[in-house]
Design a protein that fits this description.
The protein is α/β, with parallel strands linked by helices. It has a single domain, classed as Aldolase class I (TIM Barrel), CATH 3.20.20. It is about 40% helix and about 10% strand. The chain has 16 helices and 12 strands. It has helices at about 20-35, 50-55, 60-65, 70-80, 130-140, 155-165, 180-190, 210-215, 230-235, 235-245, 255-265, 275-280, 295-305, 325-335, 350-360, 370-400, and strands at about 10-15, 15-20, 85, 115-120, 145-150, 170, 200, 285-290, 310, 340-345, 365, 415-420. It has an 8-stranded parallel beta sheet. The radius of gyration is 21 Å and the shape is globular. The protein starts with 10 loop residues before the first strand and ends with a strand. The mean pLDDT is about 95. The structure holds flavin mononucleotide and benzoyl-formic acid. Flavin mononucleotide binds near residues 120, 149, 171, 201 and 346. Benzoyl-formic acid binds near residues 123, 204, 228, 314 and 317.
């Protein structure tokens, strides 16, 4: 017999922030075990991928697990975590579990209950029929901000509805300048739907060389179910432009419309730093650039007065042979830390990984593939399970290492050592 994860949330309040209590979740699981009830999903985070693979069609599986080229960057992302080790200290006389609440001050006025957010991931209906609706509900329920992708298989307005009073941010795949009217329309729809920060992804103006997808002949945009174009098909400016060009509605020339939208959001060529001005003029709120890997680019973001960066290599899905994202994080923190908010992603698979990225100076981590595996395993329940598991793991890791909170005062480089220096 197994139980329902989302009905099993225990809450607690710390520093005025109400949030689910992941350690109480763990305790409940042991109690229920006494009555021979078992959790519906594994807690072994490195098994989520394999178990999710059993549930997915070959194409979806190849899409989420796949990387650019030989997968070298993705491997390096993982290996980089093992180069750093947490050094526990003793007899710190702690009376409470660590406080995981976090201030990402340029992005959110409120303290966030946890130092993680849901990474933008497109086409989620290929993993579970409920897609983004399930993950946006789980995020709100678990107190984790939801970053919505422009390549979502659900419209901006429907994701906002599912996310309810959760914290949500919008990720832009940025159309080329000739389509500025569409960009402005996306930004105004996101604003109206309660998305409070803008994340602009810079590393994917075209999809990388993805052997696993090519083996399956699979590009989710070109499928007849039009799974990655929901935002475009609901966009009034795109619709009007299509009609005036073709003389018919999108629905009457669905394949052409899908191809045009795909071309619009993945123009194949990069913008320039000058174009940021347009975004600043059309977005009233924090702007975060995602995909930063160099000190020079991070410094440029500071000079332009932007609020944040995501140190990310897109999980190794874009540039094969690229440097590990965790590897470049400390240098970028040294160059711009304190001047801009820094998020990190690429390769996070457990609580200790989050602890290490935060100790190296990130203010928050984006969780990518693990929650997609949760979505494939069990929709909203599966995503909730993954978030709770990662947070419970983080909380007990910090607690047992004698680290009192996830804030930089306690969680900083003094708790880490490089294994190769030992
Ligand atoms: C299936 C899939 C789809 C993704 N779609 C997007 C997207 O639409 N927009 C975006 O900025 N990043 C996208 N990403 C990248 C994630 O936001 C994140 O950077 C990456 O997953 C981090 O690596 P990790 O999952 O290996 O930890 C996607 C990643 C995956 C696995
Ligand atoms: O696959 C990706 O990494 C990605 O960013 C993406 C782009 C378009 C649709 C879905 C995902």
């Amino acid at each position: 017999m197994s139980f329902r994860v989302i009905e099993d949330v225990a809450y607690r309040t710390k520093e005025g922030v109400k949030a689910p209590d992941p350690v109480a979740y763990e305790q409940k699981i042991y109690q229920r075990g006494l009555e021979y009830e078992r959790p519906p999903f594994t807690f072994q985070s490195l098994k989520w991928e394999a178990q999710a693979e059993e549930r997915m069609a070959a194409e979806s599986k190849g899409y989420v697990v796949g990387n650019a080229g030989t997968g070298e960057t993705a491997r390096k992302n993982r290996e980089a975590f093992a180069k750093w080790s947490i050094v526990p200290s003793r007899l710190n006389k702690t009376s409470e579990l660590p406080n995981l609440s976090t201030q990402v001050k340029r992005i959110s006025e409120q303290r966030l209950p946890f130092p993680i957010a849901i990474a933008p991931v497109g086409v989620q209906r290929i993993f579970n029929p409920d897609g983004e609706v399930a993950s946006a509900k789980a995020a709100a329920r678990e107190g984790v901000p939801y970053i919505m992708s422009t390549a979502s298989s659900t419209s901006i307005e429907d994701v906002a509805k599912a996310n309810g009073d959760g914290v949500r941010w919008y990720q832009l795949y940025w159309p080329s300048n000739e389509h500025n009217e569409i960009t402005a329309s996306l930004l105004s729809r996101a604003k109206k739907a309660g998305f409070s920060a803008l994340f602009v992804t810079l590393d994917t103006y075209i999809l990388g060389w993805r052997p696993s997808d090519m083996d399956n002949g699979y590009n989710p945009f070109l499928r007849s179910d039009n799974i990655g174009v929901a935002i475009g098909f609901a966009d009034p400016v795109f619709r009007a432009q299509f009609k005036s060009k073709h003389g018919v509605e999108i629905e009457e020339k669905i394949h052409d419309a899908a191809a045009e939208w795909t071309q619009t959001v993945f123009p194949g060529f990069s913008h320039s730093w000058e174009d940021i001005k347009f975004l600043k003029e059309h977005w009233d709120g924090p702007i975060v650039l995602k995909g930063i890997q160099t000190i020079a680019d991070a410094q440029k973001c500071v000079e332009l007065g932007l609020q944040g960066i995501v140190v990310s290599n897109h999980g190794g899905r874009q540039v094969d042979g690229g440097v590990s994202s965790l590897g470049v994080l400390p240098r970028i923190v040294d160059a711009v830390g304190g001047k801009i908010d820094i998020f990190f992603d690429s390769g996070i698979r457990c609580g200790a990984d989050i602890a290490k990225a935060l100790a190296l100076g990130a203010q928050g981590c984006l969780i990518g593939r693990p929650y997609v595996y949760g979505l494939a395993l069990g929709g909203q329940e599966g995503v909730s399970h993954v978030l709770k598991s990662l947070l419970g793991d983080l909380e007990l890791t910090l607690h047992l290492a004698g680290i009192q909170s996830a804030s930089p005062e306690h969680l900083n480089r003094s708790v880490l050592i490089r294994e190769d220096e030992l």
